[in-house]
Specification:
By secondary structure, this protein is an alpha+beta fold. It contains 15 helices and 66 strands. The relative contact order is 0.07.
């Protein structure tokens, strides 16, 4: 109690002093008023423990006036036995000279005529002409407000701060030398702002008291000794209580991780085990790992070092910290740093040990303690600066102490400005007290919680705590043994550092302030004194992925040409489309036809997954509408990108080929076509050409050709006359000429009538059909000019020289056009049905004489013709089948076989046959539990005839079989009317009414999946219709429970709940939900 009161008194006094600063030390620029700070000290007659308030008399600040201040008398410092009375006036410091009068104007600096202030202990002080800068004045005010001298006086030299050593913050080494001279000290080192001074002839406490009282000395601080917090005492319930009752449903995230990991870590396989890493359940690591494992982030560990070559820490780099020219070493002598490292980033999926919160990070170990786990502010600062210099993004510090240092605060501020997030343990004092570095600004202070989510009994707490995390009985890597458990905020802090690393990996540009805010905003609210709550990794990452971007790349040079998050892009035919966005662990869905990609219940409903650059060659000359979205590991879809891409054609022309009639009727118009090919046969090119006549006979002088369409018009000739024209096509791009095409023009009778051998044709995919054409002139004479065949939908069916090839389901029009200039055409409609490429017949394995049953046929692919012809290929006389329903004659002999055939229409594809046997008729079905199960069912039930009718299973087998789902092999046998077994077990067909709860194989093997009820049916497939049902109830087992108490917790080394005789206490049970929410939460209490 006395210790707590002293802390309260100091804090209250500090708060009041801070309130007076603007009217005294910082009142006016250039004025240097002084004040006496009286530290409240407890008296021997302290108030009773039941009292909740205490009056503290604090002097009020006096206002500056134009009158001179009276000199103050020197007073003896108060002791615990007597406290000096305080008045309403402020007592100024005793000085060697009379304080000059103050006016409303700025008091000028002390001139050479004024004798310098005499400092105690013979300290020379700063040079007379040295003027404190605004920053140095702020540092002095900070030192006074934190009562550094008073706090240091209450500490033990050599145990809580280093003897004869001061720390100062100096912008340069020259300034640090000046500071050292002011204290008659030696500058031991200066490193990135931190100066370490070695005192001579004066103690640290006296030097700080002098510095706090005089502006002729700079702000200084002791070199506090930081200790690894003492490990919390473990309570019995911390280890968890393993139960095997109908409880906790498996969480899908833990189950999917375990099922998908080839070599799961030993400490994660069995949630009922005493050494299970429950911290992952508490902060939801499993779900977070679906998004990221922390790749790309470096986490620095300022601790006792990390063991070299630990099999579960392959991602650690050990870095020496130089302190005053000496290395602090690398090895871990006490196992603390190795344990912390494993909590942050132990390897995942290697079959040994456990896994860190962020198993994908790089770990950077910086040893800053001696072999006993002791360090100092200066060593911690050196380590912090080295971590920043080495590129760490997260720094974990699982040690500290009660002393404040502005030098340390400035080092933290510089790290924060460099983008480094600092996480620190609150301490294991078990009470409300302020420790550093957790108490500094820009540091995430972490409270420890146990399995119940309540503050661990030994954890320090306070309003300055930021968040909480599991820290009680945490299993991790160690030195000897290789894996061990530890408790304390030292274990909770690296959990938070790991979560911060996960968030940083998804948001590389996030600032420390943004990371801190995110962890607080998504923390799980719980009990009191937990800061913002318990960090939740999955919640921190539960943000919609960003919108993807479309990029056009040059496939030859592999250079980015353009990009867009919406709008229109242009691309060459040989370019690449790449989609970017999301994190490395996100995946992208896309479409190229303007449809929106979709995902439902973990399955893609529209679009396809992007996993490689998309070649634009197949889309040359087209405009694509690209839609894409990112989906993170939590199944959350982001906004959809919509981007139009105009794909150009090849400009490298190889050849131009002309096609058309070689003979044409005089006075008629002929149509000609040009095919432009590129040098690259796979690259589409622009087909535009211009047409020209290059020569003609004399009687064709009036012939002409349309430059764009290629239509040739010829003059009329007298009967029996003949002429010719020659033409070429020239590509508009690159001006490539075709070969000369010669057309003979004759004065003949044109086609009057043209007809095809069929006007409608029905066929199946893969069929070929011949079409014949007949043409005649106006006299009825048969003529045979050239013709042109075409298909309106070549994707359905093509035609060449009258031969039709059916390709896909649909309808197309086949056209035959006479090329003599008459323009006569004939058409045929072709309907193509999907042919059967695969056919499967299902039904009974056997049938009894005199019974009937339906067989089913499944055709493929989807949409294939299903008009089937059923027939009996072989079987007893009188066996018949109609539309798939099979009738077995009464006189069929047992053991005979029946062969059934199902065939599509002629040309419609492949057929199939099905064979079954004639067997005795089943009168009933007997069900039973067959063979040995990997884990015994919870319960079984039977009817009066001995049939298995009910079964209880776990959704997951607890204990060492937790990677397996609970299962049971069932058996079923058909019985005749007399109850005898029939030798026809193949006729039993198994089915489940709810396969998502419990599924069953064709052999009767039942496997549980999730909590619920399913009916497993064994039905005789012999036409008798007999069946037996087994009701399977699936429940979720408890992995562990934790027991909490409403009794007050002991403090410091007493971490058990305390209860006075004759009083009562309420206990609370918390169920672990590694397997999911418990199905049965009944508890049996016993003494």
């Amino acid at each position: 109690m006395e210790y707590g009161k002293r802390i309260i008194a100091i804090l209250l006094t500090a708060a009041l002093i801070i309130g007076t600063l603007p009217l005294t030390a910082l009142a006016e620029e250039g004025t240097e008023p002084t004040q006496t700070i009286t530290e409240p000290v407890e008296t021997a007659s302290a108030p009773a423990a039941s009292e909740t308030t205490a009056e503290i008399s604090v002097p009020e600040p006096t206002e500056t006036t134009g009158e001179s201040q009276p000199e103050a008398t020197v007073e003896t410092a108060p002791t615990e036995e007597s406290i000096p009375e305080t008045t309403g006036e402020t007592v100024p410091e005793t000085t060697a000279e009379t304080v000059p009068e103050t006016t409303g104007e700025t008091v000028p600096e002390t001139t050479a005529e004024t004798e310098p202030e005499t400092l105690p202990y013979g300290l020379p002080g700063l040079p007379e002409d040295y003027v404190l800068s605004e920053e140095e004045r702020t540092d002095k005010a900070d030192m006074i407000s934190h009562q550094v001298a008073q706090q240091t006086a209450a500490l033990t030299e050599g145990e809580q701060y280093e003897k004869d050593v001061l720390l100062v913050w100096a912008e340069s080494e020259e300034t640090a030398e000046i500071y050292a001279a002011a204290f008659s000290a030696e500058l031991l080192s200066w490193q990135e702002g931190m100066g370490t001074l070695g005192l001579q002839g004066v103690s640290v406490a006296d030097a700080l008291a002098a510095a706090q009282e005089s502006d002729r000395l700079p702000a200084a601080y002791p070199n506090h000794i930081a200790l690894l917090p003492p490990e919390e005492t473990e309570t019995a319930e911390d280890s968890g209580i393993a139960l095997f009752s109908a409880d906790v449903p498996q969480t899908q995230t833990w189950r999917s991780w375990l099922d998908g990991t080839e070599n799961p870590d030993a400490l994660l396989k069995d949630p009922t085990a005493y050494n299970y890493q429950y911290m992952h359940d508490t902060v939801d690591s499993y779900a977070a790992w679906g998004v990221t494992t922390g790749k790309g982030v470096t986490v620095a560990i300022l601790d006792s070092g990390v063991m070299e070559n630990h099999e579960d820490l392959p991602n650690v780099t050990r870095m020496e910290v130089s302190y005053q020219g000496d290395s602090l070493g690398l090895d871990d002598a006490i196992g603390h740093g190795t344990h912390v490292a494993g909590i942050i980033g132990a390897a995942m999926g290697n079959g040994v040990g456990g896994a860190g919160i962020a198993p994908g990070v790089k770990l950077l170990s910086l040893r800053i303690t001696n072999d006993q786990g002791s360090s100092t502010d200066s060593k911690l600062i050196c380590g912090l600066q080295a971590a920043v210099e080495a590129g760490a993004q997260i720094v974990n510090i699982s040690l500290g102490g009660p002393g404040y240092s502005a030098v340390f605060q400035k080092a933290v501020n510089e790290a924060t400005e460099a983008g480094v997030t600092v996480v620190a343990a609150m301490g294991n004092d078990g009470t409300n007290c302020l420790n550093y570095p957790a108490g500094y600004d820009n540091v995430i202070g972490v409270v420890s919680v146990d399995r119940t989510g309540s503050r661990a009994s030994g954890s320090t707490y306070g309003t300055w705590a930021d968040v909480a995390a599991p820290g009680a009985v945490i299993w991790s890597t160690h030195t000897t043994p290789r894996y061990w458990r530890k408790s304390g905020t030292s274990m909770a802090s690296p959990v938070v550092a790991g979560v911060a690393a996960l968030y940083q990996s998804v948001h590389p540009e996030a600032t420390p302030a943004q990371i801190t805010a995110r962890l607080k905003a998504t923390a799980t609210k719980g009990g009191s004194n937990l800061g913002a709550g318990i960090v939740n990794a999955a919640a921190a990452l539960s943000e919609k992925p960003g919108t993807p971007a479309a990029e056009i790349w040059d496939s030859e040079t592999d250079k980015l040409l353009s990009q867009s998050t919406g709008g229109t892009l242009s691309a060459s035919w040989d370019g690449q489309l790449r989609l970017t966005g999301g994190t490395e662990d996100d995946y992208l869905l896309y479409t190229l036809d303007g449809k929106t990609p979709g995902i439902r219940e973990g399955k893609v409903t529209s679009g396809q997954r992007y996993n490689a650059p998309i070649s634009l060659t197949p889309y040359a000359g087209q405009t694509l509408t690209v839609k894409a979205m990112a989906v993170n590991g939590l199944g959350m879809a982001g906004s959809v990108l919509t981007c139009r891409i105009q794909v150009g054609k090849d400009t490298e022309i190889g050849s131009v080929t002309v096609s058309g009639p070689t003979e044409l009727l005089a006075g008629k118009t002929g149509e000609f076509h040009a095919q432009v090919a590129g040098l690259n046969p796979e690259a589409p090119v622009e087909q535009a050409v211009t047409w020209h006549l290059t020569g003609w006979s004399d009687n064709m002088a009036r012939a002409s050709i349309h430059a764009s369409t290629g239509k040739l018009t010829t003059p009329k000739l007298s009967a029996g006359d003949e002429g010719w024209v020659e033409l070429i096509a020239i590509s508009k791009n690159r001006q490539i000429y075709s070969s000369i095409f010669r057309v003979t023009v004759k004065a003949l009778n044109p086609v009057k009538k043209i007809s095809l051998s069929a006007r409608k044709i029905s066929c199946y995919t893969g069929n070929t059909v011949d079409l014949d054409v007949t043409m005649s002139d106006f006299k009825g004479n048969e003529v045979t000019p050239e013709v042109l065949w075409s298909s309106s939908k070549p994707q359905v069916a093509t035609v060449a020289d009258g031969v039709i090839t059916a390709l896909a389901k649909g309808s197309t029009t086949i056209t035959c056009k006479a090329l003599d200039g008459s323009g006569k055409t004939a058409k045929c409609t072709v309907t193509v049905a999907q042919g059967v490429e695969g056919l499967t017949i299902t039904g009974l394995a056997s049938m009894a004489p005199g019974t009937s049953a339906a067989l089913k046929a499944q055709v493929s692919p989807k949409g294939a013709v299903n008009r089937l012809t059923w027939s009996v290929v072989d079987g007893p006389a009188g066996t018949r089948i109609t539309n798939g329903k099979l009738y077995v004659p009464k006189d069929a002999e047992i053991g005979e076989t029946i062969t059934i055939s199902a065939q599509p229409p002629a040309g419609g594809g492949v057929g199939a046959e099905y064979i079954l046997t004639v067997a005795p008729k089943c009168a009933s079905v007997h069900t039973y539990l067959a063979g040995e199960t990997g884990y015994a069912p919870l319960s079984e039930s039977y009817d009066r005839k001995g049939n298995l009718t009910g079964l209880s299973l776990y959704s997951v087998q607890p204990g060492e079989y937790s990677k397996q789902k609970d299962s049971a092999p069932l058996g079923a046998t058909p019985l005749d009317a007399g109850g005898d077994y029939l030798d026809n077990e193949n006729c039993i067909q198994w089915s489940s009414s709810n396969p998502s709860v419990a599924s069953v194989t064709e052999n009767g093997f039942v496997q549980a999946h999730k909590a619920g009820t399913a009916k497993i049916t064994a039905a005789a497939q012999d036409g008798s219709g007999k069946k037996q049902t087994v009701t399977v109830k699936v429940t979720n087992p408890v992995s562990t429970i934790a027991l909490g108490s409403s009794a007050p917790l002991g403090r410091m080394l007493i971490s058990y709940p305390l209860l006075a005789a004759g009083k009562s206490v309420r206990h609370k049970v918390t169920f672990a939900e590694t397997y999911g929410k418990p199905t049965n939460q009944k508890i049996t209490w016993s003494w």
